[in-house]
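TL;DR need structure tokens for one chain.
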Amino acid sequence: MKKVFLALCLVLCLLLIAGLALAEDASVSFTKQNGSVNGGFPFTFSLTLRKAVEQDLDVLLQCKETGEELTVHIPAGSKEGTVQYETDLVTKNETRNFTIQDGEGYTAKSKNFALKVVTLPKAKFYNSVIFGYVGKTTTVNILFENPSSVLKGTTVQLRDQNGTVLDEKTWNSGDGLRPFKVNVTRDLIDRRVLSVWMGDYKISEKYGYGAFTDMSDEPVRKVATDQPLVAITLDCGWYGRQMPDILPILEKNNVHCTFFMTGFFIRNFTQEARDAVAAGHEIGNHTNLHPKMAKDKAKINRVTELTSTNDAAVELLGVRPRLFRPPYGDYDREVIALSRAEGMEIIIWTEDSHDWDVTNGYDFDKVWKRVTKKIEPGYILLFHLDGKSTPAVLEKLLPYIQEELGYKCVTVSELLASANMRIPEVVEVDTGAAD
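>> reply
TL;DR here they are.
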């Protein structure tokens, strides 16, 4: 009996030792004791065991602050398991403490984890307008107002209005100013509405204004058409008194022309402008207050000079200009890019009548000689609504061009269409850019 009793005791001791070993083998720990994640993004918790388990094991985690519970599944034959925790957007940084809860088949060793949930970063465009030219790389500087909220390893993207990723950066460290590089191709020309994204979240409050163009497409001075077409254009800057004189002349000769109007003109001579629209004439943009767009660029807001005129035309005339004529013919490559970004092609002229020039033109004979010395298909003739001799010259010129020379007078858009020339696209987006 004594031998049997000793044998039983030995068996019990062996079972106890095996049980203790098993309990030690199922000791569960967090791989790390802390971590960070931006609110709105998932975080992956990782648990480890000293050795692989023989059976599937489910480990329960609980958040002290929210009461949320997560289950980490560790499959048989493995010694680690993960679970993804979906976070919400937060308005301020928060710390959430997770604890491994004791459960069947395991015990917790390193059982606490502090998760810092961080607000999303805020990005803004360093420049109000970003210019880009086909074949060149342009830099878009993005300022992150709270760079500490951009966690290491985070990917931040610069996108356009179509969702195209133009460039992306993976954050390591440093200050809040980051240069993004855009290789400008013809696919990107005209208006680019830019924004900064982190995953599915747009982190730039205002959009970036991208004005991208191809400088090989020069402003229009003459149209290479094989049709006998000529465009008559009249610039309307400050006065509308001669509109009642000129419109009947155009109508009598069955001519539609292009009036380039300032925003000032549209707002102060609204009825005259409406009369031109009602008669079937085309309206172009001639800036808001007639500045020199290149020479005076430091004194003016060039985007506003364009957009305020278009807004006035839409609001008061019911039309949106698709053509732009810079006052004095003064432009640079940025003006070209801005015009096309606003959905307008730049139209200069083939021949200036000088009906505005008191010293060297102005009178009938001088104006007449200038505009009739040479006329060819695709010519664009420049007149001014307030030119002293303009009505009299047009009275004689229109039948001369159409009846004697055999040309047809058309709008600039019709002239462009005859040569299949492209007018930039209008991108209708409330950008809040270009302060």
